[in-house]
Amino acid sequence: MPLVRIHIAGSTPSPAQVAALQQRATALMAGVLGKRADLTVVAVEHHGAAQWSVGGAALAVGGRPLAQLDALITAGTNSEAEKSAFIRAAHALLADVLGPLASPVYVALRELPAGDWGYDGLTQAARRDALPVEPPYLPALHGMSNVKQAS
User: Fold this and answer.
1) Contacts of 63 (CB under 8 A, 6+ apart)
2) Using CB atoms within 10 A as the burial measure, which of 1, 76, 82, 129 is most buried?
3) What's the predicted TM-score (pTM) here?
4) Burial of 28 (0-12, 13-18, 19+ CB in 10 A)
5) What is the pLDDT of residue 125?
6) What integer best gives the mean pLDDT of the chain?
7) Where does the record place the 4-oxalocrotonate tautomerase-like domain (predicted)?
C-alpha cells in the first residue's frame, strides 16, 4: 500500500491537473515500483507561495510553482535501480503536469519497516504473514487425479 503526497506551492492546480497527478502517480507506483494500484492513495495539496521558501526567501507570487512528492513504501521491496527510476520519472511527471517548476523539486521515497505501518488496522508485516502458503507437495498431488489406484 503506497501512500503518495504531492505538495504544490504557488499557482493553484486545476482540477484536471490534480486528476492527472493522481492518476499518473498511481500508474508510476504500479509500473515502476510494482505496487498495487488499487491500494495506492495519492493526496494533492496546494499551499500559497508565501508559505514556502527557498534559501530563506518566500516564493514569488505569480512565479513558477514549486512541487514536492513524498511516497511511503515498505522497506526492502524495491531495488536501488527501481527507486532511482521512480525519482526520475516522478520529477518528469510533476514538470509535465504542472509546467515549468521552480527549483529545487524534491522527490522522496521513504522506506518504512513492514511492522511500522499498514492500513485498515493491520501492519504490512501482519498482512504478509497472513498470506496463505501452499504446501510444496500440493502441486504434485493435483497431477495425480488420473492415477489408477492399486487393487
Assistant:
1) 10, 49, 102
2) 1
3) 0.81
4) buried
5) 81
6) 87
7) 2-58, 74-122
